[in-house]
Request: fold
Amino acid sequence: MLGPKAGGLYRHQNIWTGLGFGIFLGFVAWLISHATLQGSNWGSDMVVTCTMVGWVLGFNIGMGTFNAPIRWMLGHDQTHEDELYAAGVGQGSSRYLKFCTDHKVVGTQYLVLVMVLFGVGGTLAMMIRTQLITPHSTFLDPQTYNSVVTIHGMVMIIATIIMVSGPFANFIMPIMIGAKDMAFPRLNAMSFWVVVSAVPCLLATFFLGGVNAGWTTYAPLSVQAPPAMDAFAITIIVFVVSVTIAGVNTLVTVATMRAKGMTMGRLPIFTWGAVVGGALGLYAMPAFLAVMTMMITDRATGTSFFVPEIGGSQWLYENIFWIMGHPEVYVILIPPVAAVLEIASTFARKPVFGYKVAIAGFVAIAALSIMVWAHHMFTTGWAPNLAAPFMLTTELISIPTGIIFLCTIGTMWKGSIWTRLPMYFVYLFVWNFIIGGVTGIYLSDVPADQFFHGDMFVTAHFHYTLLGGAMIGATAAVCYWFPKISGRMLNERIGKVAFWFIAIGIQVTYFGQFWEGFEGMARRVAQYNPKFEAANQMSTIGAYILMSGWLIFLYMMLHAWRRGKIAPANPWHAKTLEWKVPTPVPLENFLVDPVVTSDPYTYGEGVPDGQEVPEFAPVHEPEPELVPAGSAPPADAHEGGGTV
Amino acid sequence: MSVTTTEHDPIEPDGHDSDDDHGHHGHGPAVEGAENPGGEHETAFQRDQKERLLIWLLISGDALFLILEVFTWFYLRTLNTSGLWNGAACTKANPCTDGLGNPINGPITRADPKYAIIIAVLTVIAAGFVWTAESAAKRGAGKRSVSTHAGLSVLFVLAAVAMQIYQFQVLPFTTIDGAYASTYEFFMGSTLAHLILLAFLLIGLWSRAARGRYEGKTWYRVRVIRFFAVWIAVSTVVLVVVAALFY
Reply:
């Protein structure tokens, strides 16, 4: 039991004090900047920038993000009781609304945030598709439409970057490697609340004139955009801080916090995905920070980085943006692909096929992804002589990607597959990913790109990759790890209904967009030639089917979280460490410290003769009650069961 | 995955220093390199390992930012779009325009390099004092010695901050005067932000050293700050060299 003063200032801080301080400091910043700067050149931009910075600082002060650093600077330490309080001890569910250092709380907070962001981004997507159901729709005016497209894009990019590295690299990954927490729990909580403070800045853009420059916010269009662009840039800068902190924390955790015996060669494949994604993020994010900082100085102080008339260059923007932008695609993609391999192994009851090859594939993708950025600029006229080398590097990246795809197939090949809900989404991932991957090869080709660039074919391609691939992989991960996170089982019947809506919805929506692209319809247009109407109607109908699927999925999750069957510690009979701890997972995860003596995928292997393998934790699994009739695990699911 | 187990008390208070972000883990006795079979008590060696890796990763990210700054400088300088890298191509007969549409008829006055050089020297000296503070902590010279060196580093970094702010006031150009002016001021802004961050760390180092937090086996925490201080000094020097030599 903690004392009445445990936690100090943390006791009085929560999301409400965060909101209060944020609004207060934002208002003060607005008041001062409006009084002193409004009349000057670029006054509105400076006022919006100051207000957003005030909000972000105020929110984080109110949340307690800076408590520990300031105490550190003043020479004071957190007491042990303070640490326990910050970890959420004795606070029940209120800890989810506080600055909590327990990695499981942070992971759950991220999961909820990601769902909220997908809700926002999905709503905007439906507005786009509703607009496009007829050629001359007036559902949205063109200016609003452009803003909706831009913010849809950026909300989804933010959500997909954190959709796996947030919930699962925080909640699951430390347990997977036998750690008690992330290496730096306070930085971990900081990364979450900092990104939370960025979200209102992004949504504020709708009330500041809208950002109509597309998610890439190419200069000079973005330099000329309304003051909403300043809020957009602050959003990105704050987001970069969060992702950098989170990525570094992941890398340090895996490098230094592994259990005894958990060698790098024994790391679960998902951990490798989180590591490579984190490292790539560390490379990509400084470029995002640099380009958005220059953007905001162009707008708010009159610098000339991206304005050719006064000495700048829009190519500078495009280069730095895509130096970030293409690795960022793999920051999104690699962790869910690794999760898919993890899940495929569990349900095929086989080790990951080509484990080391798959890791090499991740590393090769990461390395190549930093050499392909200019394929986004084939049609801009920048350095035509470099088109061929960039085409080559882009096509090269399909090799490790293909190898990882084969590893996924090989893992399932001839396995006795136990087809539960996570596996449905693994199959869907495989289908979508091959379509997204193959269409990407067309776009890497310079002549083909001249034709396809800027049309709906590109839109369909990256939605197949990021939604059909990465997001479906993340959905599989949700289905797989939900019992460990929530302590409840998902209702598979509802889940399968959701699955079919989602699977069909994706194909109809994005095949419709391929069709639009082949016919030559441009992206980001609010109204179009009637000859594209049939393809657009197909895509919009698909989008409504898809949305229905996600709503059913959301219902399934919320229902399970409140009323789902209690989950056993290891409902999938998986071999990795997170399934060897009790559910709910205790503070610091392990009642006893694990010492790992084998690789993570010992399916089908019995206990070696003469070797006694003790039970890891006194967990009793009422599996028979929870496995529906007719879907029992294969006979070898328990082989080597003593090895837990 | 086969595992064996080692029992321990999952949470154990220790009352030792926790001046870093190690959250709710129990901190064991700080014995460098001690055996830690279960991992439940972090040794000084393990904490040092974590913090070193953290700081090196952050420095590597910051280094990429620095590279992009320098890239921007040379990219815009080489392109010299509209003759407005530094206005050398602008004449009365063929004027350029600044960010507000005013004519520019000749080269932009170059920034006096002495301010930037002074800032770099002050930062290098500050980093040097962090280094000597680390040495003092490492050899167990006592809290007065460590805090004196740390205090001197604070003085120098604050002087660098003040000088950087002063340089903004005395620049012969503003942000609207073309790409050279923009990039130069961007360098200065970046340097200022880094110096403020360094000042925060060094004030913490000083106040903690004065409380004897770096006595004994915890000297390595001064080293972690030294890594960052040296990095800031290096990056400041790089920006000064680029700005001074490549007008």
Remarks:
- The domain at 101-563 of chain A is CATH 1.20.210.10 (Cytochrome C Oxidase; Chain A).
- Residues 607-644 of chain A have pLDDT under 50 and may be disordered.
- The longest helix of chain A spans residues 314-348.
- Chain A has two domains: 1-100, 101-563.
